[in-house]
Write a structure and sequence with these properties.
Blueprint lengths: L2 H50 L8 H8 L13 H34 L11 H14 L9 H20 L6 H25 L7 H4 L10 H19 L1 H7 L3 H6 L4 H23 L5 H12 L9 H27 L1 H4 L4 H19 L19 H24 L7 H8 L5 H35 L11 H15 L5 H23 L6 H25 L5 H8 L8 H20 L1 H7 L4 H5 L4 H23 L5 H13 L3 H25 L8 H19 L3
Helix pairs in contact: 1-3, 1-13, 3-8, 3-11, 3-12, 3-13, 4-5, 4-6, 4-11, 5-6, 5-11, 6-29, 8-11, 8-13, 12-13, 12-15, 13-15, 15-21, 16-18, 16-28, 18-23, 18-26, 18-27, 18-28, 19-20, 19-21, 20-21, 20-26, 23-26, 27-28, 27-29, 28-29
């Protein structure tokens, strides 16, 4: 045989072998996918069967089986029979749980795939926040809604919120970072608006707090049956997008080269996710964390079962995982506390607690949780030192003016001359009293705002994620949980005790998060996932205590959890001031290391930076700053997210400039928010944390519109 003929034969053999391997791989992949989906379905069926056997009546498994075969043994007793209870109560509840889990799970995987960010969730486009806000508005203001349209209020609210976010971000074709950040800002603003209405209209909205955490209680199965075709069609459509979603994971440029229509794919995917989320909220209220947890669990399991990495398998698998989380959480709760007691507890609380435990365990067991996401710190445009210096100088002037105005405004307005007389100890008693009470509040807002701005900067640089904030370290959740436990167990507890326990809870939560995240080294993605899991878990426990607490204590707790300077004295400012005296010089010493940490894990090591020790020191500093700010203003979450982003948009990415700019912006934001909250509805007050979100969100979106990620 000649050489060319031999070469042709070998080439043909190679092609045939490659084709055979592809066929073999395809067969193996199909078998693996089928096995995974069947296994998840079997788990869901078993959990649903267990769930159906639970209930408030004395009807058990034997009665249900008898009614299934047409022999209802309970008919001889007064009251509804087993068949009536099964069809009228238990099946609607378990059916709603399955449908909500599937809808939120698929919506979550769509959001995360389109945003290419493991922190994205159905809240990314503020769908849940919009639905909750719409229902709260109609309830607070007594707006009469026909019975047939009552379920559509949440649906319409969620859709309008998503449309607003898309418009602010520049449409579905906007960059994923811009879309995620605009959605997060809008969600926080809507949450702040909802919390404000819950505080101001506490009597009218008492029942909404439980609904706002999600509930599977169903009057009948009508709503669940109506949602089946909607969820089914959307899930099928999402599966048809699988190939495009797989390619989008390579990046927009690569996907476009491979023929993926980026704009239409993203538009359709977002529309699908919004409809699924709005349907779930309409059916069972805002059940949180499922849309975030289920996709993350699926991706973590993909490291063990690689076929889950393909969206054609991941989408239905994530839907099943979401349903498993909801049903398992509800069944475990009913088994522990009893079906009667479980009716009074929000289903979303137990769902979140279970999901957070699973997420932490999986993230802990995996070596890595996925590719790291760069923050906007690594993408900001270069800005000259002259402009940066001008911005920082102007910020200092604005901060001074805001502080002075904070002293002069409130239930009663005073003049600058009154303030000068107070400083000289020559003012009238009424003026002395007013300024003596306002000065510590302004100082608390100034110090805490600066501390939170610096803390957020340190966390975002360390975690390298555009959604990172001090809450990712468990600080916010730990502080809130500690405070609520004190108020619940110790009636009449003073603000000093509440704040002190809040600090202890915040630092303890950080220690738990960091300890669980360490596994032969610190992986930022693992830290983020575990931090999110514990954050949501602590927040759910806080909600559980609030629901079980004395209803008269709820507005007070809500106010503290929303961030407030009410009743602060100079002693509350001292811990924050001391922490800043230590942390600010350290932050300026670390500016080079922060620039390197914001890039990736390899660059610091290559240039000789002790990455792990520096990151630990940075995170401890951020945790202490955020924890002591609790003593001054309660729980304020938005400053730590928005101040670093605003600073980078104004002065560039170099942390030598970002650190002072973020501190100034955080201080200005909280001082202004405190002054507005004390003034707009005086003598009543709105918590500063809510005003921060209401004012900061539009400004944050404005900065996003000006910058180009």
């Amino acid at each position: 045989m000649t050489a060319p003929a031999t070469a042709m034969t070998e080439d043909k053999t190679t092609r045939e072998s490659a084709a055979a391997r592809r066929r073999s791989g395809g067969i193996v992949g199909a078998v693996s996918a089928t096995a995974v989906l069947l296994g998840l379905t079997a788990v869901l069926v078993l959990l649903a069967a267990w769930h159906i056997t639970q209930g408030t009546s004395g009807i058990g498994v034997r009665d249900l089986l008898a009614s299934f075969f047409g022999q209802d043994s309970s008919l001889a007793e007064p009251g509804p029979g087993a068949r009536d209870i099964l069809l009228g109560s238990r099946l609607p509840r378990v059916g709603a749980g399955i449908l909500v889990g599937i809808a939120l799970g698929v919506a979550g995987v769509l959001f995360q795939s389109l945003a290419r960010n493991p922190l994205a969730s159905p809240d990314t486009l503020a769908v849940t926040g919009g639905a909750y806000f719409a229902v709260t508005v109609t309830t607070a203001f007594g707006i009469t809604i026909p019975m047939w349209a009552s379920g559509g209020v949440a649906f319409i609210g969620g859709l309008l919120a998503a449309i607003l976010v898309l418009g602010l971000a520049g449409g579905a074709a906007a960059s994923t970072t811009r879309l995620v950040l605009a959605g997060t800002a809008t969600a926080m603003a809507l949450q702040a608006g909802t919390s404000t209405l819950l505080i101001l209209f506490s009597e009218e909205t008492t029942s909404l707090f439980s609904w706002g955490s999600g509930t599977l209680n169903q009057l009948d199965g009508t709503a669940a049956v109506r949602s089946i075709p909607v969820i089914g069609v959307i899930v099928l459509g999402a599966i048809l997008l699988s190939r495009c979603l797989d390619l989008l994971g390579l990046g927009d440029d690569a996907a476009s080269v491979l023929g993926v229509p980026i704009r239409s794919t993203r538009s359709v995917g977002i529309l699908f996710a919004v409809i699924l989320t709005a349907t779930a909220v309409t059916l069972a209220g805002p059940i949180g964390f499922v849309g975030l947890c289920a996709p993350v669990i699926a991706r973590l399991l993909a490291r063990i079962v690689p076929v889950l990495g393909r969206h054609a398998v991941m989408i239905p698998a994530t839907g099943l995982i979401g349903a498993i989380i909801v049903i398992l959480a509800d069944a475990v709760l009913r088994a522990i506390v009893g079906a009667t007691e479980a009716i009074t507890l929000p289903s979303g609380v137990t769902t979140t607690i279970l999901g957070s435990i699973v997420l932490v365990l999986l993230a802990r067991s995996m070596r890595s949780s996925g590719p790291a996401q760069a923050t906007s710190a690594a993408k900001s445009t270069l800005i000259g030192p002259r402009r940066a210096g001008l911005v920082i100088g102007l910020g200092v002037v604005v901060l001074i003016v805001a502080s002075v105005l904070g002293l002069l405004t409130g239930e009663r307005f005073y003049l600058l001359g009154d303030g000068l007389l107070w400083l000289q100890d020559r003012a009238a008693p009424v003026i002395d009293f007013a300024f003596d009470s306002r000065a510590p509040r302004v100082a608390a807002a100034l110090a805490a705002g600066a501390a939170l701005g610096l803390s957020g900067t340190l966390v975002q640089a360390s975690a390298r994620n555009p959604l990172a904030e001090p809450g990712l370290l468990g600080i916010t959740g730990g502080a809130g949980l500690g405070a609520v436990i004190v108020v619940t167990l110790i009636p009449g507890a003073g603000i000093g005790l509440v704040s002190g326990v809040g600090i202890v809870g915040a630092l303890a939560a950080f220690a738990i998060v960091y300890g669980l995240s360490w596994r032969g080294g610190m992986n930022t993605d693992r830290l983020v996932l575990i931090g999110i899991g514990l954050w949501f878990g602590f927040t759910s426990l806080t909600t559980l205590f609030l629901v079980r607490a004395n209803p008269w204590d709820t507005p007070t707790l809500f106010t503290w959890l929303s961030g407030s300077t009410y009743g602060r004295v100079w002693a509350d400012v001292a811990p924050v001031a001391l922490a800043l005296l230590v942390a600010v010089p350290a932050a300026f010493v670390w500016t080079r290391e922060l620039d390197l940490l914001a890039l990736d894990d390899d660059t610091p090591r290559l240039v000789g930076v002790a990455r792990e020790s520096v990151r630990l020191a940075v995170l401890i500093t951020a945790a202490v700053l955020a924890a002591v700010s609790v003593s001054a203003v309660g729980v304020v979450g938005f400053i730590g997210l928005v101040a670093p982003h605003a600073a980078r948009a104004l002065v560039g990415a170099r942390h030598r400039r970002v650190v002072p700019a973020a501190m100034i912006l955080g201080a200005v934001g909280l001082v202004v928010a405190d002054a507005v909250g004390r003034t707009v509805i005086a003598p009543a007050q709105i918590p500063a944390g809510l005003i921060v979100a209401l004012i900061g969100a539009p400004y944050f979106v404005y900065l996003l519109a000006r910058s180009r990620a």
